[in-house]
Amino acid sequence: MLAKPPVPELKCCDHHAPPPLFTGSRRRRLWDLESHAHCPLVGVSIPLDVLRKLVNKAVGGNALVSDYEVHAGAVSECGRRTRLSELMQADLETRYAREVLAFKAAKTTMELAELWVKHLKCGEVSGAFWAALTHPRCDMALQEGMCRDLHMFQHQAGAGVRLEIAKFNALADENAVLARELAKVQERSTRLIANKAAECERLQAEVVRARADVIGKDSQIAYLTQDLATLQAAAPSLEENRRLQKRVLQQAHRQAELEAQVADLRRKLAAAERVNQQADQAAAQAERALPKPQAEPSDAPLHLQEKVVLCVGGRSGNIANYRDVVERVGGRFTHHDGGLEDNSSALDANLAAADLVICQTGCISHNAYWRVKDFCKRTGKQCVFVENPSASSLERGLAQIAMPIRAVPHAVPAAEGR
């Protein structure tokens, strides 16, 4: 660090002989101004850090003095043309070139004063003070008035600064409170964000697992579909087999129902036979006690004596009634639906095994009708054609073949008592 340079020990209040006012068109230089204008000019128009740089440049080193001493030394140097005053002159001209150009438009002292007042009201006094002081039309009265205006402006600026400082301190306190509140809010927000991030990660993991499960299920479905297609290609009759299996199950269920019905009928038949046997015994005792009357064979009741009666056609809901009618007269009932659902190829076998045939013409296919008629005609087998598919019509049909059946001698005793 350089040694302390010699700075002139001059105060702001030191005065030199006032330079004469110029009446030409040339702008005045810094050293041409009155000494009482140097102090406000340097204090307002040149920033302190810039002023210290200019002083250091003028002395060729670092001035190890206070800001006040730098200001006082610079003010004292403004009274004459020196290295420092020339540097300050050049800086002021460069810094406030725009204001100098604006004030150049003033041609009279009144216009100059109006420009100064305008800039003063706007608070733009730094460049305006320099441009107005150095203007050729700035007289002593205007210069004094400008100095007074600047002095009051500085007081007002100081009061404003104090007010601003108070406001700043209040705002700083409020800012501290808000900063603490903001820190708390940020902390809560950080926790919420962390919780939400963890929740999002968990949900994302669940989504990934769900997608993996869906992909696995889709793959399994694709494999099963492919296997099904392969099986269907290997077994073209698979659907037919399924249908037949379903039909077998239905027939098995129907057979179970019929077997249960047969068992119930057998129980009833056994009970009826016991009753008939008791009645026969009572009748036999009565016959032994009385002379036997001559009975006409035609008066004996119908009894089929275990003959097989085939019923072709008819309604499926009346089959149980058909069976009851036939078995009530001692016959064995068989049925074929006439080709509607049963296999038509089994019709010939049923016809061959039957002793009697009853054809329900109202509920039979044309093909089955002609096959039954042709078979009975060729074989001479008894056949009765019934139009109405009711149980009573079936009884009347059996009545048509009653006479040949009654002609059988051993059929009469078995039918008695029924």
Automatic annotation (TrEMBL):
Region span, Disordered: 276-299
Keywords, sorted A to Z: Coiled coil
Compositional bias segments (type: Low complexity): 277-286
Positions in coiled-coil regions: 168-213
Top-level taxonomic group: Bacteria
Matches recorded under InterPro entries: UCP020408
Protein family according to the UniProt entry: Belongs to the UPF0751 family.
Name of the protein: DUF2325 domain-containing protein
